[in-house]
Design brief:
It contains eight helices and eleven strands. Helix 2 crosses helix 3 and helix 5 packs across helix 6. The C terminus is likely disordered. It has a six-stranded mixed beta sheet, with helices on both faces. A five-stranded mixed beta sheet has the order 6-10-9-7-8, sandwiched between helices. It has two domains: 175 residues, Thiolase/Chalcone synthase (Peroxisomal Thiolase, Chain A, domain 1); 124 residues, 3-Layer(aba) Sandwich (Peroxisomal Thiolase, Chain A, domain 1). By secondary structure, the protein is of the alpha/beta class.
């Protein structure tokens, strides 16, 4: 066990959060908003304009819209940001990264900025990384999950239609008490030779083990969890998980028709909507779960502290 892991567990045992969610922002563009024309050839040299809304919707422009909303809701100064992480399955280009494009467009500090690709778990895996920098002393980290239908590669059996267009962002800051991110984890397994059923069983087992680890590290039990935000793109697996975990349907937020196509962005968008609807209120505890291709899985326990939330609207997301 590393010294960092020991410190994180000790902090959880004292009932303290690892870091706060200072603000939460999302961007869901209108259905008729035009997508950007795919970049190719010489256009791949100098692509910073791809983040600008007037070019049409891209993963970077969606990410920038959500980031603006989160920063506005948080009240955190951009100068305090010390890291930007984007989790996505649909980068517009591989280089520069989506995080770097957002950094440039929003005129954010020249800090560490990178994308994390872990299928549907990308955003919660990014949270698992970002929260460790907060506990190590970073003032603030900007975390973004973004998806668009401008994907670089159509996976077999999927095609571009599987992806929705949306983004969510959170500003993480230092903890001031017991509200915020209590624990996180991320894992995966190589199953190159397994069929679909075998991978589903591996994913289910991973989610169960991840839940156990996350709850243990947060010094919580399942009975302490007020709301579970599940993996929206895998409802069958989540129903199987809820039966094994003893979680009633009333405590499980699972709406694949609404969130399933936005993949890595889904967990924070659903969290935003749960707070806005009053389903998650200040002082309540939530378990966020994600699982996807690989298979990969990730989990996070949070205690909602009443942070600001915001949803970007057309026009608003264009302001730097």
């Amino acid at each position: 066990m590393t010294s960092t892991s020991t410190a994180l567990r000790a902090q959880a045992r004292r009932g303290l959060a690892l870091g706060s969610i200072a603000g939460l922002g999302i961007y869901r563009p209108p259905l008729d908003a035009p997508a950007a024309r795919p970049a190719s050839g010489s256009e791949l040299t100098g692509v910073s304009n791809r983040v600008q809304a007037e070019q049409g919707l891209t993963t970077p422009s969606l990410a920038a819209g959500a980031a603006r909303a989160a920063l506005r809701a948080s009240g955190v100064e951009s100068a305090d940001l010390e890291m930007i992480i984007v989790g996505t399955t649909t980068p517009d280009v591989l280089w520069p990264t989506t995080a770097c494009l957002v950094q440039t467009e929003l005129k954010l500090p020249m800090v560490a900025s990178f994308d994390l690709y872990a299928a549907e778990t990308s955003l919660l895996a990014a949270l698992n990384v970002g929260i460790r920098y907060i506990t190590a002393g970073a003032r603030a980290v900007l975390l973004i999950g973004a998806e668009s239908n401008n994907q670089l590669v159509d996976l077999p059996g999927q095609g571009g239609a599987v992806h929705g267009r949306a983004a969510a962002a959170a500003v993480l800051s230092r903890a001031g008490g017991d509200d915020g991110v209590l624990s996180t984890m991320a894992g995966g397994a190589a199953q190159a030779d397994g069929n679909g059923d075998a991978q589903d069983r591996t994913l289910l087992r991973g989610l169960m083990e991840g839940t156990t680890d996350c709850l243990k590290n947060a010094s919580l039990t399942m009975a302490d969890i007020d709301l579970v935000i599940g993996e929206q793109s895998a409802p069958e697996i989540m129903h199987a998980w809820s039966k094994l975990a003893g979680v009633s349907p009333s405590r499980l937020l699972l709406d694949p028709a609404r969130y399933g196509s936005v993949l890595s962005a889904a967990s924070l968008i659903a969290l935003h909507d749960a707070v806005k609807a009053g389903r998650l209120q200040k002082g309540m505890t939530a378990l966020l779960l994600a699982g996807g291709s690989g298979p990969t899985w990730a989990a996070a326990c949070i205690r909602w502290g009443g942070a600001g939330i915001a949803e970007a609207s057309p026009g608003v997301e264009r302001r730097a």
